[in-house]
Amino acid sequence: MNFTSDKEELLNAVQVVQRAVSLKNPLPILSGIKFEAEEGNVVISATDLELGISYSFPAEVIEQGKAVLPAKVITELVRRFPDVTIFFKSDPLNGSVTVKYGQSEANINGYPVEEFPELPLPVGDTKFSIPGEILKEVISQVIFATARDENRPLYTGVLFEISNGEVNIVATDTHRLAWRKILLDNIGELNINLIIPGKTLNELIKVAGLSDQPLEITVAENQVIFKTENVYLVSRLIGGNFPNYRQVIPNDYVTRTRLKARDLAEASERAALLAREGAPVIKINIGDNILVVSVNTEAGRVREEISVFQEGEDLRFAFNARYLSDALKAIGTEEVILEFTGPLSPVIIKPVGEMEYLSLLLPVRLREES
Amino acid sequence: MNFTSDKEELLNAVQVVQRAVSLKNPLPILSGIKFEAEEGNVVISATDLELGISYSFPAEVIEQGKAVLPAKVITELVRRFPDVTIFFKSDPLNGSVTVKYGQSEANINGYPVEEFPELPLPVGDTKFSIPGEILKEVISQVIFATARDENRPLYTGVLFEISNGEVNIVATDTHRLAWRKILLDNIGELNINLIIPGKTLNELIKVAGLSDQPLEITVAENQVIFKTENVYLVSRLIGGNFPNYRQVIPNDYVTRTRLKARDLAEASERAALLAREGAPVIKINIGDNILVVSVNTEAGRVREEISVFQEGEDLRFAFNARYLSDALKAIGTEEVILEFTGPLSPVIIKPVGEMEYLSLLLPVRLREES
């Protein structure tokens, strides 16, 4: 392997793939980044066996070849390179790579190339594409509702339910649920349910330059592959049957309010400061076009008033303040609608506008009446 | 206590004093911030008994009085206030404070005001002043050489040796030493040695708005007080005799080189990536107006060449790369001079120019020759 590149290309590349480097795995090879010099470009890859990322960038390749270098060393070194042309040359006998920059050089000992696990190829007929910016928006609207608890793997994923030309995207940790529907004109007869790990989607939206390109998605057995011009991301799928989300979404309401998302999110966060630690429960009262957020604990009291447009009965509820503010911030529109069916039924939070999106949040049952 | 203020004043004030809030002390009162409304201004204070900070800001005071509020709650609440006028009113019966902002209000339970330790007044004749920007520069040039290890308290402090109209400022952790001398025209006959905790100085340089005001310094028994128009910072002094720093500074050299501080700092940091973890030892060879930084470990090798102006013998040395780059970054001038007396004697690092500053760094003894 023998190629030259510039610092910015290299830095961008290692920053993208290092998201898949395994920091905890006992296999040393997984703490490496693989370099492959091909005709006119270099592909670098990392994987923790659950998630794999490749990134290709144009380079002047003098000799094709491969090497695997320790991710920590090469990433930190690239970050600290001066802004000059960088020369890479591997020694196929011992797997080491010599890197020249200006008057200086480093020789980094590598790992055996043949031990690095191959990322699977995008084979299979189950293919469709989605504009990067749409996928980014959709993920940011549902990801907050996934569970963090790895003991319930199903809830750490996001459901992509594809059928009849539409995609329903759903996440839930059983306390809250977020749902978005989009229409795609290229999914034809496709009829498939994918549960993609939240971690994969989190990394996917962070990958630089993703939003201005269409993403090609290929589904293989137990795996899903996302592909753009430069990025190739492969992830395991989560097995199992996602719960029937349709049956938990109420069809009716007794009270409906319209308000500014930011007003309620900020009031909830302030009120949470005086709530009990752990589960910051706040109370919400709606009446006479005023929504009141309140908390009353041994630390003190908060009472915030927000003007709303109210339809229907007066109501009182209690919520986890963090969950409420997560949901309000995820929507992305200035105004939102809250629909309530009863004190123990979930509240529905919707954007004002045409977007097919909602999240729902279970209230907290209050022990004492106050 | 009854006053009104705006969010920005309050936010600035709590951010300054919260540096002195005790997070670990078992006395709950030390986790509080004291508010004192006086005629035309409000003073807020925090202390962990080693360091105390007060900040005063103009406010419309309707009724004078005091209250102590939990620092965490009030700091986070102020950070999240909308940008409106904020009304504070205390209830002297129970020590709680009602805060009104827009249509909303919080009532925060406080601590007993009488339990809050008084910060000492700036009494005593030992007084002088120093321009804020000079003190900031001086601290940033020596603070890196203080020890972190609380078991050697003397070395966690910075010596201010004041006599004959000059101030020598010195820090050392016994592996390295930094010295700066400044002249002050207002210290007259003053003859005193102060050892000020590094933590105090670190907080001092972070206090907003410090650099554009002169700092008035008062020395009381075991304590030092720094005062500007708004800020009042009191700290314990460290007892003991600071080592005689003059005798460890070599007067002569066999080799002297001039180079760009940044070139050597960056080369050291890159080389350290391939050094052994823990104590990242790098080698330096000087000859023919070239300084070579090198490392050779099981992880690989680095060799960097830097053009220098060399006077005197060729030399080879080994250093802790982190210590070397700390010293080079602290100087603050583009070009520096390195003076070497021998392979086991400290190197001296000086700025090019008139500034009376130097730091010295002990080399590492190399076990094997290579």
Please explain how this structure is put together:
The structure is a homodimer of 370-residue chains. Chain A has 370 residues and is α+β, with helices and mostly antiparallel strands. Chain A folds into 3 domains: 2-115, Roll (DNA Polymerase III, Chain A, domain 2); 127-246, DNA Polymerase III, subunit A, domain 2 (DNA Polymerase III, Chain A, domain 2); 250-361, DNA Polymerase III, subunit A, domain 2 (DNA Polymerase III, Chain A, domain 2, Roll). Helices cover 17% and strands 43% of the residues of chain A. The first copy, chain A, is built from 6 helices and 26 strands. Chain A has helices spanning 7-17, 71-80, 132-142, 198-206, 261-272, 321-331; strands at 2-6, 32-37, 41-47, 51-58, 60-63, 65-70, 85-91, 96-101, 104-108, 127-131, 157-163, 166-172, 176-183, 192-197, 214-220, 223-227, 231-236, 255-260, 281-287, 290-297, 300-307, 309-312, 315-320, 335-340, 347-351, 357-361. In chain A, the strands form 4 sheets. A 9-stranded antiparallel sheet of chain A has the order 14-11-12-13-26-25-24-18-22. In chain A, strands 6-2-3-4-17-16-15-10 form an 8-stranded antiparallel sheet. The A-B interface holds A 70, 73, 76-77, 80-82, 96, 103-109, 266-267, 269-270, 273-274, 298-306 and B 70, 73, 76-77, 80-82, 96, 103-109, 266-267, 269-270, 273-274, 298-306. Strand 21 (300-307) of chain A pairs antiparallel with strand 9 (104-108) of chain B.
